[in-house]
Here is the input.
Amino acid sequence: MKSADRSVWNVLVAVPATMRQILVRGALSGGRPANGCQISCHGSGIEADWAFPTIMKPVLLIGAGGVGSVVAHKCAMLPEVFGPITLASRTLSKCDAIAAQVKQRCGRELATAQVDADDVRQTAALIRSTGAKLLINVALPYQDLTLMDACLEAGCDYLDTANYEPKDVAKFEYSWQWDYQDRFVQAGLCAVLGSGFDPGVTNVFTAWALKHQFDEIHTLDIIDVNGGNHGKAFATNFNPEINIREVTAPCRHFEDGAFVESAAMSCHQAFTCPEEVGSYEIYRMYHEELESLVKHIPTLRRAQFWMSFSPNYLKHLEVLQNVGMTRIDPVMFQGHEIVPLQFLKALLPDPGELGQSTKGKTCIGNVITGLKDGQPKAVYIYNICDHEACFAEVGSQAISYTTGVPAMLGAKQILAGGWRQPGVWNIEQLDPDAFMADLQVHGLPWQCRELTPAQAANFQVA
Ligand code: NDP
Here is the structure.
């Protein structure tokens, strides 16, 4: 983005989204050329000479699940940023169903396409035919590398919400994607990794805290509470296969310069959320953002991730594990090979369908301690999101919503130019300010509270 465009964009992001749409649509309908428009919005305090920001670029969204639906809606709501949108996935009918909902709620047409994202040539051909400048990957972590390859082949920027995981090993780490650094730099393309909520917003919270609240960060505790109730006996909030692989893996946390392994779900404690969201038992587990955060914030002495689980969820999970239903190796069943966890996914409720019945709130945030001006300091930065409000806005529950909104906002930062630099980036490496401002106005408002050291040590944030 040219510097003139960027300054215009800074003006635009500082005003509410609806006003921005009026400003941009007004400029367009005035029939002026794309550059050099004069904006004067009386009574708003905004008067600016500006060059129209050249960011209405075609985007390709891959994945038509719970998260894909939210990203499609939220991108469609920002026509001044997202040009023609193509929604593609393995099952075309799911893309068409989402496109119909987007048309109904937002009045905007999306193109749809069928694609096998494991096939690099097929995906590259789709990128070329849509003219996409950015591919938003909200398929599954298994597709990350093939989609990055397709972006390199077709000359397109890339963004995802989860790091690569091989199908046959329950292991996720960034090394596979970090290995693309030189290829993306040489191609002059940008890849932003992990732009969901966690990873995603939690990384940006940490980067923002380092920029504005601390001189040095020492400890980080990411606490992810889902206080929602979907009324089902057992269901996962996002893709069941990915979710169960994640929560059954051994726990790892970072302490004194190294990752320390412990048994899954073996460390837990009570946590009371602010704003009367409630009290929950939170369990320490490994989560992918710990790997990139300890690399990029080397002053971190301890980094942990905690997630709430209900006794009911844990009881079902234990039984499923004990009977072998969470296995990811193929077994023979009536002459066919099946993977038990994939079979279980087929039986469980579709997370994309849970919005209708889910009530309650999520509360996800970071307790951070460190030094400011030589003094110990602690803060808690968090967002609270209401399942029913998400459903009313885009027809999805809050887990899909809290992932889909940051994916849209990360994409917006790339298209607007603020985050667009050649290479492969974890989100905490990029400037947090515009993203943090956008969270406040695009559905995920956050708060930052100062804690005493004792409160931080005990996670007393309520
Ligand atoms: P879903 O299972 O609901 O959706 C995944 C979509 O990807 C489906 O439409 C599926 O197609 C499609 N897909 C799978 N394989 C292929 C393929 N080979 N080619 C084309 N399309 C394919 O998952 P969610 O929407 O719940 O999650 C999406 C992503 O978001 C996941 O990577 C998940 O890990 C991530 N996530 C990140 C979070 C964060 O905070 N960072 C939180 C929650 C999720 P089909 O319908 O045919 O199966």
